[in-house]
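Technical note accompanying the year-one report. For the benefit of new consortium partners, we illustrate the data format agreed upon in the data management plan: each record pairs a sequence with a structure-token string. No post-processing was applied to the example shown here.
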Amino acid sequence: MIVVLKTGCGDAEIQEVTGRLAQEGFKVHLSQGVEKTIIGAIGDRSRLEALDLEALPWVEKVVPILAPYKLVSREFHPSNSIIKIGQHEIGGSEVHVMAGPCAVESRAQIIETAHAVKEAGATFLRGGAFKPRTSPYAFQGLAEEGLRYMAEAREETGLYVVTEVMDVRDVELVAEYADILQIGARNMQNFFLLKQLAKINKPVLLKRGPSATLEEWLMAAEYIMDGGNYQVMFCERGIRTFETYTRNTLDLSMVPSLRALSHLPVIVDPSHGTGRWNLVHPMAKAALAAGADGVIVEVHPQPEKAVSDGKQSLTIPNFNLMMQDLARLTTVLDRNLKGVDG
């Protein structure tokens, strides 16, 4: 539920309401705006009558949240959530580009790519150290060695690291090296993993499952937030449909849909969403036009030699062209492409 306090309510009155809620076992989240103070409370609705909050003179109204996802909903948190990572903010006026190879193949490859995407304007380095592959015989990643290479690239370039965690046993290890922990599409409903990520103090990039509905995706985010980690970002990466020309169908309607229903930031992955390098650039522009807070794309110095996802990886020159286009577009959208001047 949401408790809306009257204008001019002071700290003592706010403490009175939050104290009562906490005493009855509610999880409390305070949102103080310029004109209104809103208290979000998650718990047993049957306890509301005993509290009788509307009897308090400084309570304007008590509104139940009808959606099954509570903490994720915009009802609970009307303003956009902004996730701070170092000097960067995701979810506000800044637009961010996360770029790098599908898989960390070697120290030289990830260092070269990091410097190149940094120079073009990327603010985050993406790369897979643990690779979930359809075939057990395919390259599975360098594991901790790959994480060390990405950390070294961060030291050299200042780029923050985004990488996937696949197993509850690896959460602490990956969190030691990464700035954002990614939940891949295959693990969107791995609830044990989601619960473990709820216990860490690191942002989580939650990719949409290949067949997940919007509500299922929102509920997956709810698992993380319910466990105490409010630093969650959605990542639309395409869904499986009958279409075979593209790897997936990039559902950009989810961007405004998520922004209407939730306060959490939205990132779009046009690389996995299309599976074709020549579609990444136009779909990245479309994603930002739809309201995304950033894009995550695959870039490789030599895509033709990549151990995975070479067909959807941009070359460094093509990435530079895309960044120039995105910079012009964000100006029109009255936003700022962080990392690019003009």
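Partners are asked to follow this layout when depositing records. The mean pLDDT is 93.
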